[in-house]
Fold this protein.
Amino acid sequence: MAEVSAEARIEAPAEKVWAQLTDFSSYGEWNSTHTNFPKGGPASLEVGGTFQENMKLMGFPAEVEWTIEELEPARTLAIRGKGPM
């Protein structure tokens, strides 16, 4: 199975980055692959929680199911997705 990994370090206060990252209504403003959350984004953030996202990957529509694997509020959000790739 193919695997894609990405990590980002952003030069901004952690609280500001966390607020943007967890504002699921504004994902499309900064994430160019995001189309929508068919079920409205995650109801809550907790390890083991899941949510679906519609994306456009390499020009093709894709639905990805994300699982929250690691969570430390205002510091770490690690998610793993399963999709058509």
